[in-house]
Design brief:
Helix content: 10-25%
CATH superfamily of the largest domain: Chorismate lyase-like
CATH architecture of the largest domain: 3-Layer(aba) Sandwich
Number of strands: 10
Structural class: alpha+beta
Number of helices: 6
Largest sheet: 6 strands, antiparallel
Radius of gyration: 22 Å
CATH topology of the largest domain: Chorismate lyase
CATH class of the largest domain: Alpha Beta
Distance between the termini: 60 Å
Strand content: 25-35%
Number of domains: 2
């Protein structure tokens, strides 16, 4: 007896995804960049859906970078995604010339346990903690915390500036005296914590891209960066060598 192949049963599209398509078309035809959308009650009434369905559709559009939720303003139409390269060219250390980051502050601090384990330091040992920010087209797009073990910069016995950008630059200069190693990147989707949300002008819980970069020299971790990027402004692609580039528009070039 022959077998009969059953035709696949189409899975109905969730209502919020259909609404997302309708809303996306409305954004293209009725709204301009930066324009504030009507409130949820008005939008739900216009499209004849429950507010819970509307929220799901709006969250999807925010994740795709079509919308932004701005503190004290509301939901606005997002500008095109900005293009920013992740990490320094090649295997350069953080703080190399033109790496796009602005040093904000630095202070010795005990890192999270998972970071200490990656660095190979004692969990109670303070390391150099450098905070940097990244701005593109006048808006904050990323916040970074860079962890540098004292063993990576042993010549940095004293720093004139106890805190602030000057101290951060001193740590970065000392790091750049090391012999080049290699760099490893990992990317994951996350939610903005309160501190990140404040620095990135987002609401807590907003989608973010977390890029973790480990600089390795010899058999040890010389530095570890945890950079939080706004998911609504950034798009990441991966080059053949594993490098990462955030780009603007439909095409992208590989990171060098």
């Amino acid at each position: 007896m022959g077998t009969t192949q059953l035709a696949p049963v189409p899975v109905p599209e969730p209502k919020y995804l259909h609404l997302r398509t309708v809303l996306s078309q409305a954004l293209d035809s009725e709204f301009s960049v930066g324009e504030i959308l009507p409130n949820e009650r008005e939008l739900a009434a216009r499209f004849g859906v429950a507010r819970a369905t509307l929220r799901q559709a709006l969250e999807q559009l925010e994740l795709e970078g079509r919308l932004q939720r701005r503190r004290g303003v509301g939901t606005t139409v997002a500008p095109p995604r900005v293009g920013v390269a992740v990490g320094a060219p090649g295997d350069a250390w953080p703080g190399a010339a033109d790496d796009g980051w602005e040093p904000l502050d630095s202070a010795p601090a005990v890192p999270p346990a998972s970071v200490a384990d990656t660095l190979g330091t004692d969990r109670e040992e303070a390391v150099h903690t450098v905070r940097r920010s990244r701005v593109s087209h006048g808006q904050p797009v990323a916040a970074e915390v860079l962890y540098v073990p004292r063993t990576s910069v042993p010549g940095l016995s004293a720093i004139d500036a106890p805190t602030g950008p000057a101290r951060a630059r001193a740590v970065l200069r000392a790091l750049n005296t090391l012999e080049p190693g290699h760099r490893e990147n990992a990317v994951e989707l996350g939610s903005a914590h309160v501190d990140d949300a404040r620095e990135l002008d987002r609401l807590p819980g907003a989608p973010v891209l977390i890029v973790t970069t480990r600089w390795v020299t010899g058999d040890r971790t010389a530095a570890l960066s945890v950079a939080t990027y706004r998911a609504d402004t950034c798009r990441l692609t991966f080059g053949e060598a594993g490098d990462v580039r955030i780009h603007h528009g439909p095409t992208a070039s590989h990171a060098s």
